[in-house]
Amino acid sequence: MDYQGLIEEVYHEVQAENLKGKVADYIPEIANVDPNQFGIALVDLKGNVYGVGDHQVPFSIQSISKVHTLTMVFNVFNTKLWSRVNVEPSGDPFNSIAQLEYEKGIPRNPFINAGALVITDALCSKFENPIDQLSEFINELAGETCVKINPDVMNSEKNHGERNTALAYFLKSYKNFNNPIEEVLNVYFSQCAIEMSCVDLAKSFSFLANDGFSIFADRQILSESSARRINALMLTCGFYDEAGEFAYRVGLPGKSGVGGGVAAVMPHKFSIAVWSPELNEKGNSIKSIRALELLTDKLSFSLF
Ligand code: GLU
Questions:
Q1: Where residue 218 sits, what CATH number does that domain have?
Q2: N vs C: which end of the chain shows fewer Cβ within 10 Å?
Q3: What per-residue confidence (pLDDT) applies to 253?
């Protein structure tokens, strides 16, 4: 398979479509990125890296980090986690608080903010230096020191964190939160502020395409069955309330972030990261989604 030729073709076709969206503007550090950036990196299971466009430019991975924290925590708590977080798509915006009240403090899934806060709380219960250990873990997955936490993004997330703070207090009122709120929020805002390139992000997702074994870390990160479960969660819950549309149009397990990144896997074939900051009205990168749609159309195989 000529992956380099394939992603270049996709890249040029998407660029020619001149798609327009809107850069997330909830904090100035995200609002001020150059909206025209666009990169794709694909990593096959031999570790070959293919890239086009701005694939080496670090960007704010935001909610994509929820997959990394879930992986760390899933390894420790295993299925016990599911008494604290459900595994159902939400159909609501990522930061919705309404569902949490009528479902009595059990978030719908680990990828909406309420669920991710529970996961970060679990991380704080088991890891002494969660921020450092999360960075080290992602570096290990990528096979190099690549993670940077942007302090300006982190502080800005904190200064605009009313809703996440409200979600954390709400969870605490339902006794689904074990650590001091400020401590967990600091970790959560730091994970949102992680910056990495498409290349490193695709490498960090490689184990999910490879039955839980990372060729870059050279070890089994998750059991085969746990890796399959994370993929199932990404397929059903990884794209805000557009997961169904993404499964229909693209058909790959993946996770997006408001920084415009998408990381996805084709099990037993490759992992891929695409980034372009302009988002559609559901908060998913308009060019990244289109690129993945074209890519899966052009492939001679699919998940299904
Ligand atoms: N920093 C954002 C928040 O928690 C993350 C949003 C996202 O990428 O989904 O509100």
A1: 3.40.710.10
A2: C
A3: 97
* DSSP category for residue 285: B
pTM summary value: 0.97
Q: Is position 303 within any domain?
A: no
User: Catalytic annotation on 148?
Assistant: no
Q: What is the DSSP string of 41-110?
A: EEEETT--EEEEESTTS-EE-GGGHHHHHHHHHHHHHGGGGGGTS--S---S-TT--HHHHHTTT--S-T
- Amino acid 96: pLDDT: 82
Is 188 annotated as catalytic? Answer: yes
- Kindly report the average pLDDT of the chain as a whole number: 96
**Percent of the chain at pLDDT above 70?**
100
Domain that holds residue 124: 3-298
Q: Which of 66, 258, 288 maximizes ligand 1 atoms within 8 Å of its Cβ, making it the mutation to test the pocket?
A: 258
CA of 116 to the centre of ligand 1 (A): 10
